[in-house]
Design brief:
About 65% of the residues lie in helices and about 0% in strands. By secondary structure, the protein is mostly helical. It has one domain. The longest helix has 16 residues.
């Protein structure tokens, strides 16, 4: 199991959470991991840094760590950007790109 966790895509809370979760689902399929308990163990093991600390701090009432869908939903809620945040980030990037040095 450690080998599967070691090779899984890592998430420390700074990456795009949606991309990471899609990468995890693809990883599970490529590795033929279909059992939910194994998927949960690998997903949790792939979380590092702030993301891991956050998950460890959750109570059972906040997140059912035996339910993959609940874990993923909680991760998205905590680390995902809303559509408005993404638009603002894009507009800021666009504005910075259009500024010319003087």
């Amino acid at each position: 199991m450690a080998s599967l966790t070691d090779k899984a895509p890592k998430f420390d809370g700074t990456e795009d959470v949606h991309y990471w979760l899609k990468s995890m689902v693809r990883y599970f399929k490529r590795q033929n991991i279909f059992e939910e308990s194994m998927r949960i163990e690998i997903l949790i093991g792939a979380m590092k840094g702030v993301a891991q600390e956050w998950l460890n701090a959750l109570s059972d009432e906040e997140c059912d760590q035996s339910d993959l869908d609940d874990i993923m939903e909680q991760i998205i809620t905590r680390f995902g950007k809303t559509r408005i945040q993404k638009i603002k980030q894009f507009e800021l990037h666009k504005q910075k790109s259009s500024e010319t040095p003087t």
